[in-house]
Known about the structure:
D-Maltodextrin-Binding Protein, domain 2, NitT/TauT family transport system substrate-binding protein, 17% strand, signal, single chain, 10 strands, SsuA/THI5, disordered N terminus
Amino acid sequence: MVRSACRADRRRGSPSRAVLALVACLSLLVVSGCGMLSGSEGGSTDSKGDLTTITVGTMPAVDVAPLHLAIQNGYFEQAGLNVELKTISGGAKGIPKLANGSLDITFGNWVSFFRAQQQGVVDLKAISDAYQADKGTFLLMRYPGRGITSPDRLRNEKIAVNTRANINELTTLATLKLHGLSREDVEFVVMDFPDMPTALKNNDVAAISVIEPFISQAHKLGAETLADTASGPTANMPIAGYAATGTWVENNRDVAAKFQRVMSRAQREAGADRNKVERLLPTYTKIDPSTASLVEIGTYPTTLDASRLERVTGLMKANGQLPKKKFDIESMLFHAPPKE
């Protein structure tokens, strides 16, 4: 269309006017074409200016605040991506959805990712880190007046966890072991995090193994801290990240690289300003702003680091979740090439 307009202008008027018209048309071509030809993340992914849509599994937890920050601030769109979110109840629940193609990328805990990889459930590639525990971010909670005054009083009692054999359960087990209890001494009940505070108040369970922002919700309902499960041997434990199948990453390396770079930017921004996280929480967790102001926030790592993630595999081996031989974390990590 642009080229045909140029030819029409050259046929009319003097040679000098034709030259001017040609220059103007060439300028239009450069301006209109730069978005198509540029390899920058700010451009679109095809000549029509369309965004590449990816479906990402997520949970209503403080861990994913940077994901929502990136969507809200348009960072994914700037990179040529349109992110559609689907809620999952736990990290383990997202893995089958990766395998059947209903999710492209999912948020999940490292324990579930490593177990699935080790068991051959699906070949996974970690694309981004997400969250690391800090003091007060993973708690075992009880309701006062019911005789559960310390973790050793949980023998033969029910404890709510969001899924089995995940980071939530393993950090709880590590705490119970410090108080002389084993996996066989308690009954784990699977329950979504948002349901845990009310279930505890109603005495459906004796304790809940819970994360933010539901810790703060439970406190508002009168619950108390029984133990910090991210302390002692599990202090500063890597908790969660984002992963896709190896096949998806191989077929979409540019998209995976863009996702990783956007998340690194958002993780850094969220980690530097608590207020941004606090303002976001009510928009996707449905807690009120007053509760959001009480939430304990962990760390948002900006890079994938195999040596740091070895703490997770060490915890898994100690609880019989992995064989004693070395687990190859590095082969699971996707590292985007440097931007040109």
